[in-house]
Amino acid sequence: MEHQLLIGKFTLESLTSGLYVSPLDLYREYVQNAADSIDEALEQGILKKGEEKISITVSESERIIKISDNGTGVGANDIYSNLIDIGNSKKRHSNSRGFRGIGRLSGLGYCQKLKFLTSIHGEEKASCIIYDAEKLKYLLSPQVDSRDSIDQVLSSVLTIEEIPERINKHYFSVELYGVVPESDLLNDSEVVPYLQQNLPVPFSRDFVWGSMIKQKLVQMEVELAEYNVELRTDRTVIDICKPYKNKILADRIRKINDSISDINFVPFYSGEKVTAMLWYAETNFLGTVLDKDIKGIRIRQGNILIGDENTLRKCYKEERFNSWMVGELLVFNEDIIPNTRRDDYEKNSAYKELLSQFTEWANEMSRQIRHRSYERSLTQSDKKFLADESVTDVDGVDISLGTELDSYDMDDSDSVANTDLLSKLSLLMDMGKKKTKLTLERKHNLTGWAFLLPAAILIFVFCFYPMIQALMLSFKNGMGDLSLIHISEPTRPY
Q: Which pTM value belongs to this model?
Protein backbone atom coordinates (compact mmCIF):
# COMPACT_ATOMS: atom_id res chain seq x y z
CA MET A 1 0.00 0.00 0.00
CA GLU A 2 1.34 3.39 -0.98
CA HIS A 3 2.01 5.69 2.01
CA GLN A 4 1.33 9.41 1.84
CA LEU A 5 4.06 11.35 3.62
CA LEU A 6 2.80 13.44 6.54
CA ILE A 7 4.96 16.22 7.99
CA GLY A 8 3.65 16.62 11.51
CA LYS A 9 2.73 19.94 13.09
CA PHE A 10 5.42 19.70 15.77
CA THR A 11 7.99 20.43 13.08
CA LEU A 12 6.89 24.05 13.55
CA GLU A 13 8.50 24.10 16.99
CA SER A 14 11.88 23.66 15.30
CA LEU A 15 11.10 26.46 12.83
CA THR A 16 9.98 28.96 15.46
CA SER A 17 11.35 29.06 19.00
CA GLY A 18 13.75 26.17 18.37
CA LEU A 19 15.44 27.52 15.25
CA TYR A 20 18.04 29.85 16.80
CA VAL A 21 20.18 29.81 19.92
CA SER A 22 18.87 33.15 21.23
CA PRO A 23 15.56 34.98 20.67
CA LEU A 24 17.65 38.02 19.70
CA ASP A 25 18.74 36.14 16.57
CA LEU A 26 15.40 36.96 14.94
CA TYR A 27 16.66 40.55 14.56
CA ARG A 28 19.56 39.24 12.47
CA GLU A 29 17.22 37.01 10.44
CA TYR A 30 14.80 39.80 9.52
CA VAL A 31 17.52 42.40 8.90
CA GLN A 32 19.49 40.09 6.58
CA ASN A 33 16.28 39.57 4.56
CA ALA A 34 15.89 43.37 4.46
CA ALA A 35 19.48 43.75 3.25
CA ASP A 36 18.89 41.23 0.44
CA SER A 37 15.76 43.13 -0.60
CA ILE A 38 17.64 46.45 -0.66
CA ASP A 39 20.43 44.91 -2.78
CA GLU A 40 17.79 43.80 -5.28
CA ALA A 41 16.20 47.27 -5.30
CA LEU A 42 19.57 48.90 -6.00
CA GLU A 43 20.22 46.41 -8.80
CA GLN A 44 16.80 47.13 -10.36
CA GLY A 45 17.33 50.88 -10.11
CA ILE A 46 14.29 51.61 -7.92
CA LEU A 47 16.70 52.77 -5.21
CA LYS A 48 19.79 54.95 -5.48
CA LYS A 49 22.89 54.40 -3.36
CA GLY A 50 22.43 56.24 -0.09
CA GLU A 51 18.62 56.05 -0.13
CA GLU A 52 18.48 52.57 1.38
CA LYS A 53 17.23 52.35 4.95
CA ILE A 54 16.37 49.71 7.52
CA SER A 55 14.34 50.80 10.52
CA ILE A 56 13.81 48.91 13.78
CA THR A 57 11.18 50.10 16.27
CA VAL A 58 11.08 48.57 19.75
CA SER A 59 8.32 49.66 22.12
CA GLU A 60 8.71 48.06 25.51
CA SER A 61 5.59 49.79 26.83
CA GLU A 62 3.37 48.47 24.00
CA ARG A 63 5.32 45.17 23.56
CA ILE A 64 5.67 45.82 19.82
CA ILE A 65 8.61 45.29 17.44
CA LYS A 66 8.67 46.52 13.82
CA ILE A 67 11.48 45.89 11.33
CA SER A 68 10.99 47.57 7.97
CA ASP A 69 12.99 48.36 4.83
CA ASN A 70 12.54 50.22 1.53
CA GLY A 71 13.72 47.34 -0.66
CA THR A 72 11.81 45.69 -3.49
CA GLY A 73 9.07 44.19 -1.32
CA VAL A 74 7.02 41.17 -2.41
CA GLY A 75 4.32 41.33 -5.07
CA ALA A 76 0.81 39.97 -4.58
CA ASN A 77 1.42 37.15 -7.06
CA ASP A 78 4.49 35.98 -5.11
CA ILE A 79 3.03 36.05 -1.61
CA TYR A 80 2.49 32.29 -1.33
CA SER A 81 5.77 31.20 -2.86
CA ASN A 82 7.91 33.81 -1.04
CA LEU A 83 6.16 34.21 2.32
CA ILE A 84 3.84 31.25 2.93
CA ASP A 85 5.69 28.23 1.56
CA ILE A 86 8.38 26.83 3.85
CA GLY A 87 11.89 26.07 2.62
CA ASN A 88 11.01 27.25 -0.89
CA SER A 89 13.12 30.39 -1.12
CA LYS A 90 14.13 31.59 -4.58
CA LYS A 91 17.26 33.17 -3.16
CA ARG A 92 20.65 31.71 -4.02
CA HIS A 93 23.42 31.43 -1.43
CA SER A 94 25.93 32.95 -3.81
CA ASN A 95 24.31 36.39 -3.64
CA SER A 96 21.97 36.31 -0.66
CA ARG A 97 22.45 36.27 3.11
CA GLY A 98 19.18 34.46 3.72
CA PHE A 99 18.59 31.60 1.34
CA ARG A 100 16.75 28.71 3.02
CA GLY A 101 13.29 30.24 3.37
CA ILE A 102 12.64 29.12 6.95
CA GLY A 103 13.83 31.98 9.18
CA ARG A 104 10.84 34.28 8.64
CA LEU A 105 8.74 32.17 11.04
CA SER A 106 11.25 32.59 13.89
CA GLY A 107 9.21 35.41 15.44
CA LEU A 108 6.19 33.15 16.02
CA GLY A 109 7.69 31.70 19.19
CA TYR A 110 7.98 35.08 20.93
CA CYS A 111 4.78 37.02 20.27
CA GLN A 112 1.00 36.79 20.13
CA LYS A 113 0.68 37.96 16.52
CA LEU A 114 3.18 38.04 13.65
CA LYS A 115 2.43 40.31 10.69
CA PHE A 116 4.13 40.79 7.30
CA LEU A 117 3.14 43.94 5.37
CA THR A 118 4.60 44.46 1.89
CA SER A 119 4.16 46.20 -1.44
CA ILE A 120 6.14 46.47 -4.68
CA HIS A 121 6.70 49.37 -7.05
CA GLY A 122 3.97 49.45 -9.69
CA GLU A 123 1.14 47.84 -7.64
CA GLU A 124 -1.65 49.86 -6.09
CA LYS A 125 -2.07 47.46 -3.21
CA ALA A 126 -0.20 45.99 -0.32
CA SER A 127 -0.37 42.44 1.01
CA CYS A 128 -0.87 41.75 4.69
CA ILE A 129 -0.07 38.28 6.07
CA ILE A 130 -1.05 37.68 9.70
CA TYR A 131 -0.16 34.64 11.84
CA ASP A 132 -2.08 34.04 15.06
CA ALA A 133 0.82 32.94 17.27
CA GLU A 134 -1.39 32.42 20.32
CA LYS A 135 -3.59 29.97 18.43
CA LEU A 136 -0.50 28.25 17.06
CA LYS A 137 0.86 27.69 20.57
CA TYR A 138 -2.47 26.13 21.56
CA LEU A 139 -2.50 23.81 18.52
CA LEU A 140 1.05 22.70 19.33
CA SER A 141 0.19 21.91 22.95
CA PRO A 142 0.23 18.22 24.02
CA GLN A 143 -3.53 18.07 24.76
CA VAL A 144 -4.49 18.81 21.15
CA ASP A 145 -4.68 16.06 18.50
CA SER A 146 -1.13 15.49 17.24
CA ARG A 147 -2.13 13.99 13.86
CA ASP A 148 -2.58 17.35 12.13
CA SER A 149 -0.07 18.14 9.41
CA ILE A 150 2.08 21.25 9.30
CA ASP A 151 0.08 22.77 6.42
CA GLN A 152 -3.23 22.15 8.22
CA VAL A 153 -2.02 23.97 11.30
CA LEU A 154 -0.52 26.90 9.41
CA SER A 155 -3.64 27.32 7.29
CA SER A 156 -5.75 27.57 10.43
CA VAL A 157 -3.63 30.36 11.96
CA LEU A 158 -3.00 32.31 8.75
CA THR A 159 -4.92 35.30 7.37
CA ILE A 160 -4.13 37.13 4.10
CA GLU A 161 -5.51 40.58 3.31
CA GLU A 162 -5.02 43.21 0.60
CA ILE A 163 -5.14 46.93 1.30
CA PRO A 164 -4.81 49.95 -1.02
CA GLU A 165 -1.34 51.47 -1.47
CA ARG A 166 0.32 54.14 -3.62
CA ILE A 167 1.74 52.77 -6.86
CA ASN A 168 5.26 54.06 -6.26
CA LYS A 169 5.65 52.55 -2.76
CA HIS A 170 7.92 49.56 -2.19
CA TYR A 171 8.70 48.12 1.22
CA PHE A 172 8.61 45.15 3.54
CA SER A 173 7.70 45.26 7.23
CA VAL A 174 7.83 42.58 9.92
CA GLU A 175 5.67 43.36 12.94
CA LEU A 176 5.49 41.45 16.23
CA TYR A 177 2.62 42.21 18.64
CA GLY A 178 2.38 41.05 22.24
CA VAL A 179 6.11 40.29 22.44
CA VAL A 180 7.07 38.03 25.34
CA PRO A 181 8.90 40.26 27.90
CA GLU A 182 11.08 37.40 29.16
CA SER A 183 12.64 37.00 25.70
CA ASP A 184 14.85 40.15 26.11
CA LEU A 185 13.64 41.29 22.69
CA LEU A 186 12.34 44.52 24.28
CA ASN A 187 15.35 45.11 26.54
CA ASP A 188 17.49 48.04 25.28
CA SER A 189 20.57 46.88 27.17
CA GLU A 190 20.45 43.54 25.34
CA VAL A 191 19.11 44.65 21.95
CA VAL A 192 21.57 47.49 21.23
CA PRO A 193 24.82 45.50 21.74
CA TYR A 194 23.36 42.60 19.78
CA LEU A 195 22.49 44.81 16.81
CA GLN A 196 25.91 46.51 16.89
CA GLN A 197 27.78 43.22 16.83
CA ASN A 198 25.65 41.18 14.43
CA LEU A 199 24.19 43.43 11.73
CA PRO A 200 25.83 44.56 8.43
CA VAL A 201 26.31 48.14 9.59
CA PRO A 202 29.19 50.63 9.08
CA PHE A 203 31.98 51.38 11.51
CA SER A 204 31.37 54.26 13.86
CA ARG A 205 32.71 57.60 12.61
CA ASP A 206 34.65 57.83 15.87
CA PHE A 207 36.60 54.69 14.93
CA VAL A 208 39.44 56.29 12.96
CA TRP A 209 40.65 52.98 11.49
CA GLY A 210 37.34 52.15 9.82
CA SER A 211 38.16 54.10 6.63
CA MET A 212 41.53 52.31 6.30
CA ILE A 213 39.82 48.93 6.48
CA LYS A 214 37.30 49.92 3.80
CA GLN A 215 40.05 51.34 1.52
CA LYS A 216 42.05 48.13 1.79
CA LEU A 217 39.02 46.09 0.74
CA VAL A 218 38.40 48.43 -2.20
CA GLN A 219 41.99 47.83 -3.32
CA MET A 220 41.20 44.12 -3.30
CA GLU A 221 38.08 44.81 -5.36
CA VAL A 222 35.93 43.54 -2.50
CA GLU A 223 32.94 45.58 -1.30
CA LEU A 224 32.08 45.59 2.40
CA ALA A 225 28.28 45.72 2.34
CA GLU A 226 26.94 48.29 4.79
CA TYR A 227 23.39 49.41 5.54
CA ASN A 228 21.93 52.30 7.48
CA VAL A 229 20.01 50.81 10.40
CA GLU A 230 18.04 53.07 12.72
CA LEU A 231 16.76 51.87 16.09
CA ARG A 232 13.83 53.65 17.74
CA THR A 233 12.89 52.84 21.31
CA ASP A 234 10.60 54.42 23.90
CA ARG A 235 13.57 56.48 25.11
CA THR A 236 15.91 57.19 22.20
CA VAL A 237 16.80 56.99 18.49
CA ILE A 238 20.13 55.36 17.61
CA ASP A 239 22.02 54.87 14.34
CA ILE A 240 23.45 51.37 14.73
CA CYS A 241 27.21 51.10 14.07
CA LYS A 242 29.87 48.50 14.84
CA PRO A 243 31.16 49.02 18.40
CA TYR A 244 34.93 49.18 17.64
CA LYS A 245 36.90 51.84 19.51
CA ASN A 246 40.31 53.52 19.25
CA LYS A 247 41.25 52.57 22.82
CA ILE A 248 40.81 49.19 24.39
CA LEU A 249 40.46 48.28 28.06
CA ALA A 250 42.63 45.22 28.69
CA ASP A 251 43.98 42.96 31.43
CA ARG A 252 41.60 41.40 33.94
CA ILE A 253 43.70 42.53 36.94
CA ARG A 254 45.10 45.95 36.09
CA LYS A 255 42.28 47.05 33.73
CA ILE A 256 44.47 49.39 31.71
CA ASN A 257 43.93 51.21 28.42
CA ASP A 258 45.67 49.90 25.34
CA SER A 259 45.68 51.94 22.11
CA ILE A 260 45.44 50.72 18.52
CA SER A 261 48.63 51.76 16.73
CA ASP A 262 47.86 50.22 13.33
CA ILE A 263 45.64 47.80 11.42
CA ASN A 264 47.20 44.66 9.96
CA PHE A 265 45.74 42.72 7.03
CA VAL A 266 46.17 39.03 6.26
CA PRO A 267 44.66 37.57 3.05
CA PHE A 268 43.79 33.87 2.79
CA TYR A 269 43.82 32.10 -0.55
CA SER A 270 42.47 29.00 -2.24
CA GLY A 271 44.78 28.66 -5.18
CA GLU A 272 45.11 32.19 -6.54
CA LYS A 273 41.66 33.28 -5.36
CA VAL A 274 41.23 35.32 -2.16
CA THR A 275 38.72 33.48 0.02
CA ALA A 276 38.89 35.70 3.11
CA MET A 277 40.56 38.80 4.49
CA LEU A 278 41.56 39.19 8.13
CA TRP A 279 42.04 42.60 9.70
CA TYR A 280 43.27 42.87 13.26
CA ALA A 281 44.28 45.71 15.51
CA GLU A 282 47.96 46.20 16.30
CA THR A 283 48.09 46.83 20.05
CA ASN A 284 50.53 46.16 22.87
CA PHE A 285 48.61 42.95 23.61
CA LEU A 286 48.51 43.70 27.32
CA GLY A 287 46.01 40.98 28.11
CA THR A 288 42.39 39.93 27.78
CA VAL A 289 40.21 42.58 26.12
CA LEU A 290 37.57 43.42 28.70
CA ASP A 291 34.99 44.87 26.31
CA LYS A 292 33.00 41.77 25.32
CA ASP A 293 31.45 43.66 22.39
CA ILE A 294 34.74 43.82 20.48
CA LYS A 295 37.09 41.17 21.90
CA GLY A 296 38.20 38.25 19.80
CA ILE A 297 38.60 37.67 16.07
CA ARG A 298 35.06 37.35 14.70
CA ILE A 299 33.83 35.80 11.44
CA ARG A 300 31.61 37.86 9.15
CA GLN A 301 30.11 36.95 5.80
CA GLY A 302 28.06 39.47 3.87
CA ASN A 303 29.14 41.69 6.79
CA ILE A 304 26.84 39.69 9.10
CA LEU A 305 28.33 38.00 12.15
CA ILE A 306 28.63 34.21 12.02
CA GLY A 307 28.89 32.69 15.48
CA ASP A 308 30.32 34.93 18.17
CA GLU A 309 33.60 36.04 19.76
CA ASN A 310 34.40 32.43 20.74
CA THR A 311 33.89 30.70 17.39
CA LEU A 312 37.60 30.85 16.42
CA ARG A 313 39.03 30.10 19.90
CA LYS A 314 39.49 26.45 18.91
CA CYS A 315 42.12 27.49 16.35
CA TYR A 316 44.58 28.61 19.04
CA LYS A 317 46.82 26.22 20.98
CA GLU A 318 45.92 28.37 23.98
CA GLU A 319 42.36 29.56 23.44
CA ARG A 320 42.76 32.57 25.75
CA PHE A 321 44.89 34.40 23.18
CA ASN A 322 41.88 34.96 20.91
CA SER A 323 40.47 37.17 23.67
CA TRP A 324 43.64 39.30 23.57
CA MET A 325 42.84 40.38 20.02
CA VAL A 326 40.41 42.63 18.15
CA GLY A 327 39.51 42.08 14.51
CA GLU A 328 37.33 40.41 11.88
CA LEU A 329 37.76 37.52 9.46
CA LEU A 330 35.74 38.59 6.40
CA VAL A 331 34.73 35.56 4.31
CA PHE A 332 34.17 35.98 0.56
CA ASN A 333 34.25 32.39 -0.69
CA GLU A 334 30.76 31.30 -1.81
CA ASP A 335 31.70 27.66 -1.14
CA ILE A 336 31.93 28.43 2.58
CA ILE A 337 28.30 28.13 3.64
CA PRO A 338 26.81 29.23 7.00
CA ASN A 339 24.70 26.64 8.80
CA THR A 340 21.01 27.21 9.48
CA ARG A 341 21.57 28.79 12.88
CA ARG A 342 24.41 31.03 11.62
CA ASP A 343 26.47 30.00 14.65
CA ASP A 344 29.07 28.24 12.48
CA TYR A 345 29.61 26.85 8.99
CA GLU A 346 28.84 23.65 7.18
CA LYS A 347 31.87 21.37 7.53
CA ASN A 348 33.01 21.16 3.92
CA SER A 349 36.49 21.18 2.37
CA ALA A 350 36.47 24.93 1.67
CA TYR A 351 35.77 25.77 5.30
CA LYS A 352 38.36 23.28 6.57
CA GLU A 353 40.98 24.80 4.27
CA LEU A 354 40.28 28.29 5.63
CA LEU A 355 40.35 27.06 9.24
CA SER A 356 43.69 25.35 8.63
CA GLN A 357 45.20 28.56 7.27
CA PHE A 358 43.77 30.63 10.10
CA THR A 359 45.10 28.14 12.68
CA GLU A 360 48.61 28.54 11.27
CA TRP A 361 48.30 32.31 11.62
CA ALA A 362 46.81 32.01 15.14
CA ASN A 363 49.73 29.88 16.32
CA GLU A 364 52.20 32.46 15.00
CA MET A 365 50.30 35.24 16.78
CA SER A 366 50.35 33.21 19.99
CA ARG A 367 54.14 33.04 19.72
CA GLN A 368 54.34 36.82 19.21
CA ILE A 369 52.03 37.57 22.14
CA ARG A 370 54.07 35.25 24.35
CA HIS A 371 57.30 36.98 23.29
CA ARG A 372 55.87 40.40 24.18
CA SER A 373 54.75 39.08 27.56
CA TYR A 374 58.30 37.83 28.19
CA GLU A 375 59.73 41.24 27.32
CA ARG A 376 57.40 42.99 29.76
CA SER A 377 57.53 40.56 32.64
CA LEU A 378 60.85 38.68 32.78
CA THR A 379 64.43 39.54 33.69
CA GLN A 380 67.23 38.99 31.20
CA SER A 381 68.27 35.79 32.96
CA ASP A 382 64.66 34.50 32.86
CA LYS A 383 64.35 35.25 29.13
CA LYS A 384 67.71 33.57 28.46
CA PHE A 385 66.59 30.54 30.44
CA LEU A 386 63.38 30.21 28.40
CA ALA A 387 65.12 30.78 25.07
CA ASP A 388 68.02 28.40 25.66
CA GLU A 389 66.95 24.97 24.41
CA SER A 390 70.30 23.47 25.37
CA VAL A 391 69.54 23.71 29.10
CA THR A 392 68.86 20.19 30.37
CA ASP A 393 68.89 20.60 34.15
CA VAL A 394 68.41 23.24 36.84
CA ASP A 395 71.97 23.21 38.12
CA GLY A 396 73.39 26.69 37.88
CA VAL A 397 70.17 28.20 36.51
CA ASP A 398 69.60 31.75 37.73
CA ILE A 399 65.91 32.61 37.65
CA SER A 400 63.93 35.21 39.57
CA LEU A 401 60.29 34.22 39.95
CA GLY A 402 57.87 36.78 41.29
CA THR A 403 56.71 36.46 44.84
CA GLU A 404 53.12 35.88 43.74
CA LEU A 405 52.85 32.70 41.72
CA ASP A 406 49.09 32.43 41.80
CA SER A 407 48.01 33.17 38.20
CA TYR A 408 44.67 34.50 39.44
CA ASP A 409 46.51 37.32 41.21
CA MET A 410 48.83 38.19 38.31
CA ASP A 411 48.20 40.50 35.41
CA ASP A 412 47.79 38.67 32.12
CA SER A 413 51.33 39.25 30.80
CA ASP A 414 52.93 38.11 34.06
CA SER A 415 50.66 35.10 34.11
CA VAL A 416 51.77 34.00 30.62
CA ALA A 417 55.46 34.61 31.31
CA ASN A 418 55.57 33.00 34.74
CA THR A 419 53.45 30.06 33.66
CA ASP A 420 55.92 29.30 30.86
CA LEU A 421 58.85 29.83 33.19
CA LEU A 422 57.44 27.49 35.78
CA SER A 423 56.51 24.93 33.13
CA LYS A 424 60.08 24.72 31.85
CA LEU A 425 61.49 24.72 35.39
CA SER A 426 59.10 21.94 36.37
CA LEU A 427 60.06 19.93 33.30
CA LEU A 428 63.77 20.25 34.08
CA MET A 429 63.19 19.35 37.73
CA ASP A 430 61.29 16.25 36.64
CA MET A 431 64.18 15.34 34.36
CA GLY A 432 66.59 15.93 37.26
CA LYS A 433 64.52 13.71 39.53
CA LYS A 434 64.64 10.93 36.96
CA LYS A 435 68.42 11.26 36.68
CA THR A 436 68.76 11.25 40.48
CA LYS A 437 66.54 8.19 40.71
CA LEU A 438 68.65 6.34 38.17
CA THR A 439 71.86 7.26 40.05
CA LEU A 440 70.47 6.07 43.37
CA GLU A 441 69.30 2.82 41.83
CA ARG A 442 72.78 2.26 40.41
CA LYS A 443 74.36 2.91 43.83
CA HIS A 444 71.96 0.51 45.53
CA ASN A 445 72.78 -2.19 43.01
CA LEU A 446 76.54 -1.75 43.48
CA THR A 447 76.26 -1.85 47.29
CA GLY A 448 74.33 -5.10 47.11
CA TRP A 449 76.93 -6.74 44.88
CA ALA A 450 79.71 -5.57 47.22
CA PHE A 451 78.16 -7.66 50.00
CA LEU A 452 77.43 -10.69 47.85
CA LEU A 453 80.65 -10.92 45.84
CA PRO A 454 82.99 -12.40 48.60
CA ALA A 455 80.50 -15.15 49.46
CA ALA A 456 80.00 -15.92 45.80
CA ILE A 457 83.78 -16.28 45.30
CA LEU A 458 84.16 -18.65 48.30
CA ILE A 459 81.25 -20.79 47.16
CA PHE A 460 82.79 -21.05 43.74
CA VAL A 461 86.29 -22.00 45.04
CA PHE A 462 85.22 -24.64 47.55
CA CYS A 463 82.18 -26.12 45.91
CA PHE A 464 81.92 -25.53 42.25
CA TYR A 465 85.64 -25.62 41.32
CA PRO A 466 86.30 -29.24 42.65
CA MET A 467 83.17 -30.42 40.90
CA ILE A 468 84.33 -28.90 37.66
CA GLN A 469 87.83 -30.40 38.10
CA ALA A 470 86.44 -33.92 38.71
CA LEU A 471 84.20 -33.58 35.68
CA MET A 472 87.21 -32.66 33.56
CA LEU A 473 89.16 -35.70 34.76
CA SER A 474 86.34 -38.05 33.91
CA PHE A 475 86.72 -37.18 30.25
CA LYS A 476 90.46 -38.09 30.07
CA ASN A 477 91.49 -41.28 28.02
CA GLY A 478 93.22 -44.38 29.67
CA MET A 479 93.19 -45.74 33.15
CA GLY A 480 95.32 -43.06 34.68
CA ASP A 481 97.75 -43.90 37.55
CA LEU A 482 96.72 -47.40 38.80
CA SER A 483 99.39 -47.66 41.55
CA LEU A 484 97.13 -45.95 43.87
CA ILE A 485 94.30 -48.43 43.36
CA HIS A 486 94.15 -51.49 45.69
CA ILE A 487 92.75 -54.67 44.08
CA SER A 488 91.69 -57.44 46.43
CA GLU A 489 90.95 -60.96 45.58
CA PRO A 490 87.48 -62.43 46.05
CA THR A 491 86.83 -64.15 49.37
CA ARG A 492 86.98 -67.88 49.19
CA PRO A 493 85.20 -70.27 51.51
CA TYR A 494 87.29 -72.59 53.66
A: 0.77
